[in-house]
């Protein structure tokens, strides 16, 4: 295998940020994840989440967005390999999309577990 000099660490970070930027700018779902995360942060500040609740929310933001990046990567590789309709291409794309969906559904349920009692408490205190 041909050996080549590795890029410096700062360049590797740059490539990773390019990937994140590309995903945000091209993928509608990633834009939705970013908007939802921003709204949760605003709600978290308003309802004064505990340290543990912040850690749970931040972990879920990271999980969902990281899976969306992997999904985008798999879509790109499949499209690179074939433009024909193939069952394996469908499995690759659909299972990757399913991974994001499972994480997003779980994140939404956990978000309800954290925020619904706080909202109820706020409403009953009015
Ligand atoms: N080469 C292919 N062979 C078979 N099925 C494919 C192929 N490419 C896409 N599909 C299927 O067509 C549907 C739409 O795929 P597409 O690549 O447009 O993704 P998408 O669901 O619109 O995702 P996104 O909105 O993130 O781009 C999916 O069910 C996918 O599995």
Automatic annotation (TrEMBL):
Q: Its Enzyme Commission number?
A: 2.7.1.107, 2.7.1.66
Broad enzyme group: transferase
Q: Which keywords, in A-to-Z order, does the entry hold?
A: ATP-binding, Cell membrane, Kinase, Lipid biosynthesis, Lipid metabolism, Magnesium, Membrane, Metal-binding, Nucleotide-binding, Phospholipid biosynthesis, Phospholipid metabolism, Transferase, Transmembrane, Transmembrane helix
| Top-level taxon of origin | Bacteria
Chain residues that bind substrate: 68
Give the GO terms filed under biological process for this record.
phospholipid biosynthetic process
User: Under the cellular component aspect of Gene Ontology, which terms does the record hold?
Assistant: plasma membrane
Segments spanning the bilayer are 34-67, 96-116
Residues that hold a divalent metal cation according to the record: 27, 75
What Gene Ontology molecular function terms does this protein carry? Answer: ATP binding; ATP-dependent diacylglycerol kinase activity; di-trans, poly-cis-undecaprenol kinase activity; metal ion binding
Report the family membership.
Belongs to the bacterial diacylglycerol kinase family.
Q: What is this protein called?
A: Undecaprenol kinase
The scientific name of the source species is: Coprococcus catus GD/7
């Amino acid at each position: 295998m041909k050996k080549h000099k590795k890029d410096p660490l700062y360049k590797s970070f740059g490539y990773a940020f390019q990937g994140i930027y590309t995903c945000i700018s091209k993928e509608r779902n990633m834009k939705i994840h970013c908007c939802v995360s921003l709204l949760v942060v605003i709600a978290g500040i308003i309802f004064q989440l505990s340290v543990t609740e912040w850690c749970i929310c931040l972990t879920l933001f990271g999980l969902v967005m990281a899976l969306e990046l992997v999904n985008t990567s798999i879509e790109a590789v499949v499209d690179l390999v074939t433009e024909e309709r193939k069952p394996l291409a469908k499995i690759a794309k659909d299972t990757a999309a399913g991974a994001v969906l499972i994480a997003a559904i779980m994140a939404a349920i956990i978000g309800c577990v954290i925020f619904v009692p706080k909202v109820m408490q706020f409403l009953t205190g009015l």
